[in-house]
Amino acid sequence: MNKNYKICVLGGGSFGTVLANLAASKGHDVSLWVKDSDKALRINSESRNTEYHPELKLSNNIIASEKLEEIIPESEIIFVATPSKIINDVLDRLSDFSMDNKMIISCTKGINEKPFMTMSETIEKHFNNSSIKVGVLSGPNLAREIADEKVAGTVIASKHADLCHLGREILSSSTFKIYTSADTQGIELAGALKNIYAIISGYCHSLDVGENAIGLILTRSMAEMSNFAVSKGQIQLLF
Questions:
Q1: Which of 41, 170, 197, 201 could form a disulfide with 221 if both were Cys (CB 3.0 to 4.6 A apart)?
Q2: Which of the following is catalytic: 102, 109, 194, 232?
Q3: Is 194 a catalytic residue?
């Protein structure tokens, strides 16, 4: 890939910081949106996010800012890495800018309750703009391990194949493997639901219930995930 893209990562938390550094390390101009000016100043002056991954030296291609007006207009690709509980507020703020022809990749796991919508569906409905291409990034991704360059994998899903391929080119590395899919909703449902089952499994481990019980919980969790996904229109074979 010869072109350097102007990229925005919304959310200067653990995962957003790592994503920004992956893209910037490949030569792209990355803007990292953070919550306040003090945090932006610290990141820009120290090339580190001292709140998350203080040991990780950030690429010089990253510029942090709390001002969306300095970031969004020039951005070609936007990675949304904010908590799901504030996604609607973030989208409202983005509505102040022209979003025509931008690519938006949600990295936020979660589901809007009322009405029931995944994060990518929420983004598409909010903007209702056919020129915007929306996708999702989801996988078993611990930001700490990715920052340490331990082998990890993820999926970028979208009905737009060019978004999937571009996202893979921007973020992939020798240790961060990216796969693509057209099944956006399926990837999001699996990503959100597995967090619930991970919490249950961890709690049961702490109670020392035994491997038989843990195995039962995992198999029943997978069955429940499949039934739930099918009820939302997914193909059972995929789950």
A1: 197
A2: 194
A3: yes
